[in-house]
Amino acid sequence: MDNYFLGIMILLLSGFVASVFSKKNKITVLSILVAIGSIFCLIPAIQVLINGESLTQTVFLSNIFCSINFVIDSLAAFFVAVITIMSLASVVYSKGYLRPYMEQDKNINSHLVFLPMLIASMLAVVTCQNALMFLICWEIMSLSSFFLVIFENEKKEVLKAGIKYLVFMHISVLFIIISFALMSLQSGSLDFASFASGMQNNEQYANLVFLLAFVGFGTKCGFVPFHNWLPDAHPAAPSHVSAIMSGVMIKTGIYGILRMLSLTGKPSLLISYTVLIISVISALYGVLYAITQHDLKRLLAYHSIENIGIIGIGIGVGMLGLAYNSPIVAVLGFAGGILHILNHSIFKELLFLSAGSVYVKTHTRDIESLGGLIKSMPATAVMFLIGSVAICGLPPFNGFVSEFLVYLGMFKGLSIHNFISLIALIGAIAGLALVGTMAILCFTKAFSIIFLGMPRSEAAENVQSDNGKLMIFPMGVLATFTLIIGLFPQYVFNFILKPVSVMCECNIESLSEPLSIMQIISVYALALVLLLAVIIGLKLMLSKNKTVMFETWGCGYNRPNNHMQYTASSYASPFLSMLKPLFKKVFDIEKPRKLFPKSAHFSLHIDDIEEAYLINPLLKGDEWFLSKFERIQSGNIQSYIKYGLIFLVLVIIGSLFIG
Amino acid sequence: MIMFFVNLIILLFVPFLMTGVIKKTKTFWQGKKGPSVLQPLYDFIRLMKKDFVISNTTSFVFRIAPIVSIVTVLFAAMLVPLASGKALINIPAGLIIFAYTLGLGKFVALISAMDTGSSFEGMGASREACFTTTVEPAFFVTIASIMALSGNYTFDSLVNITANAGNYGILVTVFASVVLFIMILVEGSRVPVDDPATHLELTMIHEVMILDNSGSDLALFSWANAIKMLLISSLIANMIIPSGITEWISVLLYLSVVFIISILIGTVESCMARIRMSHVFEFIFVMSSLALVVLSLVIARMFGG
Q: How far is CA A97 from CA A431, A456, B221, in A?
């Protein structure tokens, strides 16, 4: 455990140390220090995951905190592993990504301080078992990520997105504080372990506490309807930061939910169904809006909502299993959910990093002006393709394994002989199937519009070469991870059972069936990959048929150009026209008029329905209400003294009556 | 072991016969003689020998797509019970592996169509992707409902439908068959969703996606599509064929069901026109509503006393 604190200390200091060095070496030093810190944190985590015994260290800080328990149990150890490995990949990648900024003499020192601080605070959050200290670390995490988001703070929209993020995080922390306060009221202590004992007998109270915590943590991880900050914050942040935020940071929200679940004991049916339904809605909502987006990073941000939804479906199925006393359903649900946390952090980070790689070369995030990049940036294209197939949950990549576990849990849940659970689970199965096919639509769109066809703008046409090895290498490592998990799910399943055992009892005997299925999937996926490799290799080498290169067949028209290609909007259009009522379309049309039309344009923008119909009216109402108080702030020093006096008088009168 | 090879032969060759029979049926309704039912097989062999013409906009995606397409379909076939009523890999939630393996093939086929940068192929890909989103949930609901009846979540539960569903068995079978039949029409890109007879203006979904493919690439794509039709037909066949008969009779019954389905497809094609593209969704939603009917039948069976 001492190693762990040492690691966090190294991470905290690394930014300051790195900023002393010359421009050239800054990020190299930072990467090395972060790597050392991560290794120190990983050692105890791996120890816990292998032995299964949790490590505890009690730190006595001051009288306010009393003593603080830092515990690495297998759940925390799992998150530590995810956080360190994924963050390290991003930090290594940032060297290539930040180079253009450094060449423009942008000061990146503060960025380099907050980056490891975010990692350190996440590591503290997942191990800290004291409510007050947890909240402090949580707040450091939110603030440091806020400063990372507003990296390009000279741009107005970046600042705006950052402030939105800050506001949402503080609404979220408010709910978490209330839920913690309610729990400590019951138990009389701030320690998580004592919370559990306080919750045992009082089901209603536990429900309330869990729901409040779910809203709080759910805002962090982006469950609909608390997701609104996500699609704004991710495009604003630099790519390696979005990768850490989407890949790792929002998962701390899931960690919070899982931790609360383990504290509040066996979930009630009401809570379980709530989590399941919100998750299905989040998954559908996320992928639906992802299809409407043309900003690559916004699209990926909406996919984070989708994947959080899938993780939530897993957790919801696990909770149903607990509530109906069906251990196999519980284990499979939680295993699917927790494995999807790992999987999502891998492929989402891969996608964000390759999106950043495209951005560095083309300086645009608008996919409508890209195209044909597979020829100039082949490595990035392959990485993005692997990430896309993985995020759609297709074999032989990792997304399939976790989604399969969730499905298997739901199928097993069908045998809970209950009317409501049958309908809910079949609904969830259909929902997950719909999410899967919509993800295919979305990522075939994204991949083919960005990388295939002909370049749609000069920016895309002028790309000469791919990014350097320094940026490709971390992506390659992540891509290898996606394939390894997809090919050997049986080992991963065994490994994932350890964190699952914190959530519910894992009886090894009842798991022999899922384990054997995992083995079959492994053989199946290996055979698929091998056969594909062999046949493709044979075709390329042995094909005797002559190949003639010619223009794309345009039905007799021999001069196709880049404007005649299908665009992202037209690709998504048949699907979106089917679901018209679910969007608020904002058209901006200027029709050609008169005999010699001068100008004409058409653009279509799709607003988030929640933002348009819920948040904006709320904000407007808020503004109206607060404007009534504008008069108080007159800028007149005398009136401010008057307010002070009135306040003092009120306090004195109040204390006379109450005291 | 013999059954394995029988199934393998069925899997590889019956798809050609299916398309042959569909074409023969169509010519019958038109009062023509028509080519032999083996014609699709001859076409396949001839195409395999041909040279390629490849668009210079394309990349490696375009070259590997046909292979991925055929390999994924063959792998998906391992999870479906064919003539013997037992799948090669018979595991719980095999449905998921089946659907997602086909999904991989579809993913690659879609990006390969987009790879040419042609607006026709883009249109086809966009529609194909769109229709898949509506078909898949209905398919899942139907099969999952039937699996809920039996409680073992393998494709076996299709075979034992009457044993598990009692009096409701026939109704469940009928509605589920209609759902799957509509799925064949959509996935196999047949009339009234798509028109496979021409390559251009009339057909704007699957056939137009492979407009730029030539030679063996084209052959593999068409073969994969035909196998996909066979796989869904075998789900229907396995629901209809009674269990507990000898293997050879069940093979015969299986083949006859598959050919009856082909004749039905041909008949539908002869007496219907393609639906207007904007109305195709309404046709597919028929499938979704029938899937819900299957679900309610299952619920009625399980909880209706």
A: 37, 24, 41
Q: In A547-563, which positions are buried (b, 16+ CB within 10 angstroms) versus exposed (e)?
A: eeeebbbbeeeeebebe
Cβ density class A13-45: b for 16+ within 10 Å, e for less: bbbebbbeeeeeebbebbbebbbebbebbbebb
Nearest-CA distance A85 → chain B (Å): 28
B281 touches chain A (CB under 8 A): yes
Within 13 Å and on the Cβ side, how many CA atoms surround A26? 21
Q: Is A394 on the interface with B (CB under 8 A)?
A: yes
* Residue A591 pLDDT: 84
- Give pLDDT, residue B86: 81
Chain B CB within 8 Å of residue A498 CB = no
Compute the average pLDDT of residues B109-122: 90
Q: Which domain holds residue B144?
A: 2-303
Q: Which residues contact B249 (CB under 8 A, 6 or more apart)?
A: none
**Between A91 and B158, whose confidence is greater?**
A91
Alpha helix (H) residue ranges in chain B? 2-29, 39-49, 60-77, 94-115, 119-150, 156-159, 161-165, 169-187, 206-209, 215-240, 247-271, 280-303
Q: Is B103 on the interface with A (CB under 8 A)?
A: yes
Q: Which residues of A touch B292 (CB under 8 A)?
A: none
- pLDDT of B202 strictly over 60: no
| Segment A462-491, tens digit of pLDDT | 888 888 888 899 999 999 999 999 999 999
pLDDT recorded at residue A198: 73
How does the average pLDDT of chain A come out, rounded? 90
What pLDDT score was predicted for residue A51?
86
Nearest to A389 among B107, B121, B153 (CB): B107
Distance from CA of A383 to the nearest CA of B (A): 13
User: Are A26 and A48 spatial neighbours (Cβ–Cβ below 8 Å)?
Assistant: no
Tell if the CB–CB gap between B107 and A375 is shorter than 8 Å: no
CA distance B245 to chain A (A): 29
Given a contact cutoff of 8 angstroms between Cβ atoms, the answer to whether B150 and B156 are in contact is yes
Distance of alpha carbon A269 from the chain centroid: 27
Q: Given this model, what pLDDT does residue A659 score?
A: 62
- Element holding A192 (H helix, E strand): helix A192-199
Record the pTM.
0.94
- Is the CB of A440 less than 8 angstroms away from the CB of B96? no
pLDDT category at B246 given cuts 50, 70, 90 is confident
Using a CB-CB cut-off of 8 Å, the residues of chain B touching A536 are: 64, 67
CB atoms within 10 A of CB A629: 8
Give the minimum alpha-carbon distance from B203 to chain A in angstroms, rounded to a whole number: 14
Residues of chain A below pLDDT 50: none
Q: Distance (Å, rounded) from C-alpha B82 to C-alpha B237?
A: 8
Q: What is the ipTM of this complex?
A: 0.95
Element (H, E) at A66: strand A66-72
Residues of A whose CB is below 8 A from B141: 426, 429-430
Q: Is B45 on the interface with A (CB under 8 A)?
A: no
Q: How far apart are CA A4 and CA B40, in angstroms?
A: 67
Shortest Cα–Cα distance, B50 to chain A (Å)? 7
pLDDT of residue A65: 63
Three-class SS state of A132: helix
- Please give the share of chain B, as a percent, with pLDDT higher than 90: 54
How many structural domains does chain B have? Answer: 1
What is the number of other CB atoms lying within 10 angstroms of the CB of residue A268?
Answer: 18
Q: What pLDDT is recorded for position A545? A: 73
Enumerate residues 531 to 570 of chain A having a beta carbon within 8 A of any beta carbon in chain B. Answer: 531-532, 535-536, 539-540, 545-555, 560, 562, 564-566, 570
User: What tokens appear for B206 in the block?
Assistant: 């699957």
DSSP string over A386-411: HHHHHHTT-TTSHHHHHHHHHHHHHH
Helices A192-199 and A250-264 meet at what angle, rounded to 10? 50
